[in-house]
């Protein structure tokens, strides 16, 4: 069967050459996202997931980040007004915080929690930034408190680290306290998986790069693979202990629809299908073919 392009009836969408140049390297989901964005202009991860039936929000986020890095999309500050208008609101001053805390007890709770977590008194500047996260940027107090505890466990006790981590959480769809609690469990699971992969690589988890950690998360959360599949990729790679080589193996398996180790290795051979398969008996037969070998008459090839 031979195919050819049908004449277009005006229902076409211009696709930049950049997309065609990336077809060989971009994942299927990334290509679908690019075409959808070009046709609709929509870049909301939740809508992308719903309309394109993507596996998770992280798939949409990764695709958007990929095309932003490639130059197809551009990042912008969501708080900035279009056309160079008013910038994002400045943090509240100490006098404003003191006045607001008289009517909102959550402000005092946030400050107490931060001071307890940091094991020191906050400066006025730090209090202003902390309250701005709650009142101006809209982060729920419980989410902020859980994030504070998480960062303290990693030795990060600064307002800059808190602000950055909360924005990362928001990008992953974390808003409420319940969502934050579930996200912390996911982060703990990711750390466990990263430690497992690092052990296969015979290195320390701290040696993994950010890109490597994202790849590991994709294996489990997007491809849906488990430790057994990751280990099988390491086995198939042989002595080559390279995370990105393993990533190419797992990516290929996912594209082929291979979901289990049995899928990868193929079905077990049918009985009798090969004469070279060794079958050991559960109990010895008792026959020793070497028994009495010295007493047997020698056989010589007859000369013609």
Automatic annotation (TrEMBL):
Residues 114-183, 214-265 form the DnaB/C C-terminal domain. It comes from the Bacteria. InterPro entries: DnaB/C_C, DnaD-like_sf. Residues 275-304 are annotated as: Disordered. It holds the Pfam family DnaB_2. Belongs to the DnaB/DnaD family. This is DnaD domain protein. It comes from Candidatus Faecalibacterium faecigallinarum. The lineage of its organism: Bacteria, Bacillati, Bacillota, Clostridia, Eubacteriales.
């Amino acid at each position: 069967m031979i195919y050819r392009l049908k004449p277009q009836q005006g229902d076409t969408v211009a696709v930049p050459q950049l997309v065609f140049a990336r077809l060989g390297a971009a994942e299927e989901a990334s290509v679908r996202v690019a075409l959808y964005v070009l046709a609709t202009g929509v870049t909301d991860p939740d809508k992308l997931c719903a309309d394109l039936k993507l596996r998770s929000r992280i798939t949409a986020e990764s695709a958007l980040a990929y095309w932003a890095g490639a130059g197809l999309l551009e990042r912008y500050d969501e708080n900035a007004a279009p056309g160079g208008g008013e910038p994002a609101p400045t943090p509240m001053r100490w006098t404003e915080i003191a006045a607001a805390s008289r009517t909102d007890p959550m402000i005092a709770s946030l400050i107490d929690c931060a001071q307890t977590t940091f094991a020191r008194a906050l400066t006025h500047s730090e209090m202003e930034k902390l309250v701005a996260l709650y009142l101006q940027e809209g982060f729920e107090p419980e989410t902020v408190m859980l994030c504070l505890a998480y960062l303290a466990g990693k030795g990060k006790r600064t307002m800059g680290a808190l602000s950055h981590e909360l924005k990362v959480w928001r990008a992953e769809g974390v808003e409420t306290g319940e969502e934050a609690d579930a996200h912390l469990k996911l982060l703990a699971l990711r750390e466990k998986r990263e430690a497992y992969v690092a052990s296969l690589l015979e290195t320390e988890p701290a040696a993994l790069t950010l890109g490597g950690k994202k790849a590991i998360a994709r294996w489990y959360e997007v491809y849906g693979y488990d430790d057994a599949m990751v280990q099988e990729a390491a086995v198939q790679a042989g002595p080559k202990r390279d995370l990105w080589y393993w990533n190419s193996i797992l990516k290929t398996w996912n594209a082929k629809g291979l979901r289990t180790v049995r899928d990868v290795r193929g079905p077990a051979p049918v009985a009798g299908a090969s004469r070279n398969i060794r079958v050991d008996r559960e109990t010895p037969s008792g026959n020793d073919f070497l028994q009495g070998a010295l007493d047997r008459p020698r056989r010589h090839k007859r000369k013609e």
